[in-house]
Amino acid sequence: METAKIAQVLDDMGTILEVQGENPFRCRAYHNAAQALRGLPGDLTEMIADGSLAEVPGIGETLHAKVVQLATTGSLPAYEKLRAQTPPGLLALLRVPGVGPKKIKALHEALDVKSLADLRAAGESGRIAKVKGFGAKTEANILEGIGFLETTGGRILRHEALALVAPILEFVRGRPGVTRAEACGSLRRRAETVGDLDVLFAADEPGPVLDAFVKLPQVAKVLGHGPTKASVLLPGFRTDQFVQCDLRGVADDQFAFALHYFTGSKAHNIAMRKRALARGLSLNEYALSAAKDGAKGVACRDEPELFRALDLDYVPPELREDAGEFDAAESGSLPRLIEPGDLTGTFHCHSDWSDGDATLEEMAEGARAMGLQYLGIGDHSRSLAMARGLTIERVREQWARIDALNAGFGDDFRLFKGTECDILGDGSLDFPDDVLAGFDYVVASVHSRFKMSRAEMTARIIRAIANPHVTMLGHATGRLLLSRASYEVDLDAVIDAAAEHRTMIEINASPYRLDLDAVHCRRARKKGVTIVINPDAHSVAGLGDLRYGVDVARRAWLTKEDVFNTAPLPQIAERLASLREGAR
Q1: Most buried of 41, 390, 454, 498, CB within 10 angstroms?
Q2: What's the pLDDT at 294?
């Protein structure tokens, strides 16, 4: 079993135990072990073999045995027993924003709520409000959360989709007769969330590949199986979730057309077909053929040849939304999009001084191993007690530790002293100005009072942006993809304020956030706002999330020059020092 799925099983076990009212310390042990697995420094199988897994903090003797059993056998009787004890619809309620295990337990015991339908019925009839500890406001929030869940449908996060599709691609590419294979659809366009998986391959005989595909051990159900296409359900990363995966086979000379068509978007494809017709051609998923007498079809080995055949520069998949890419491709003005390798460092990273898993040294070494020249440590400020926010005294202790580490790094790497400082309810900051002045940079973020009115939240954030000590705005909308909607805020007004005060806005690269989104990111850059890509990493492994932030930046048409943290270390240090000097 894959490491990510083992971690999810442990998380599910902890959650089920919470719903059952188990000792909170026991429940937390499962969640801690799951988090430790997600941040492993090496391959799980190798760490089991050499015994190093037993030394990982957070994985005790009992849970170590469970992880080994899952990794080696693919099953765990203790997990199956817990699931059998729990009504199948009960865990699905956890997907409703604001409904945690304690609320589920209370509603199950008081109202016999066992499913999403039960929860809606209880809310619409006013029965939730009468349960002790709930009330009318909580009832209204639960109904609002159900509505949000229904709008997101069965979508999954980008990193989950990539994890599911990777073994499918590896399998297909390894089959005899397959010349090439790619993932298509919104996943290839680097969308934030994905509804289903589309995989395309080229082979003279697709049948044997499809026959083998539907027999894969991870296939939960076969929805359809024909000579050129098969559709199956794959288990998702939640116990109540399945994801559809469609596998299509075409001839190799059809592959470029099929890859373009099944990548989309629909609006882009319509515009491409119209462009082909204007040139006497007909474009579909199999060919670019003659549409009228006198015209000739065009053979295309790959997508760049297809675009050239229609007098266009190659349009990267992430720009295919019919949002200006045709004019740019025709005039030769498409941007050279930022690449992951363009990033020279990053900010907004957490250590074990607050709620991170790794030490300052481990975070620094992880960044250096990635080839980064610098890393900003931005642990939480004092008001966020649940995340072990730093007091002013601990801030000064951390500064001293960072100074000592930097003394040993030399000129090729540097840790920057930062903070993720809470924006308080009135827009003031969690540290006084004299403390903020001592940081190399300040990320200002909202972590509380999400239910403020649009006008209040907008004024709150703008006041923080206007503070001269604030370097960048963190996760601007507070959203958690597929879990929590954005708080009400006028992002255009926030962007205008950021431009006025020369405050950067981050793309929070956590795959659970991806905040700022591509639309507003593009808008912010046009207004002159500098964008910075930050992973919000809480572990060494979390630094790898930078690639998802690059995905957002590419969808926003950003180049290397549009992003702050693509400059070399000396230039970054100089620019941060200049910003600090301007704040004095």
Answers
A1: 498
A2: 59
Per-residue pLDDT reduced to its tens digit, 330-350: 999 999 999 999 999 999 999
C-alpha–C-alpha distance, residues 304 and 312, integer Å = 9
Cα distance between the two ends of the chain: 55
DSSP string of 316-330, one letter each residue = PGGG-SSSSHHHHHH
| Distance of alpha carbon 229 from the chain centroid | 30
Spell out the CATH class of 340-583: alpha beta
In 327-413, DSSP assigns E strands to 345-349, 374-380
Q: Distance between alpha carbon 20 and the CA centroid of its chain, in Å? A: 30
- Give dist(CA 240, CA 235) in Å, integer: 9
Identify any residues that bridge with 250 across adjacent strands, giving them in sequence order. 202
User: In this structure, which topology does domain 156-250 adopt according to CATH?
Assistant: Beta Polymerase; domain 2 (3.30.460)
Structure-block tokens of residue 470 = 């604030």
- The residue among 560, 559, 551 whose CA lies nearest residue 188 is 551
| Greatest extent of the chain over all pairs of C-alpha atoms, in Å | 81
Q: Do domains 267-331 and 340-583 have the same CATH topology?
A: no
177: left (phi over 0), alpha (psi -120 to 50) or beta: left
Q: Are 488 and 453 in contact (CB under 8 A)?
A: yes
Six token digits for residue 300: 């295309």
Paired with 443 in beta bridges are: 420, 472
What fold characterizes domain 267-331?
Answer: Beta Polymerase; domain 3 (3.30.210)
Sketch the domain layout of the chain as residue ranges.
Answer: 3-152, 156-250, 267-331, 340-583
Q: Phi/psi of residue 351, each to 5°?
A: -120, -175
Secondary structure letter of residue 259 according to DSSP? H
Pick the CATH number of 3-152 from 1.10.238.10, 3.40.630.30, 1.10.150.110, 1.10.490.10: 1.10.150.110
Task: State phi, psi for 166 to the nearest 5 degrees.
Answer: -55, -50
Contact 14, 29 (CB under 8 A): yes
| pLDDT value of residue 89 | 75
Residues written for the chain: 584
Is residue 73 packed enough to be buried (19+ CB in 10 Å), middle (13-18) or exposed (0-12)? exposed
Q: What letter does residue 313 receive in the DSSP assignment?
A: P
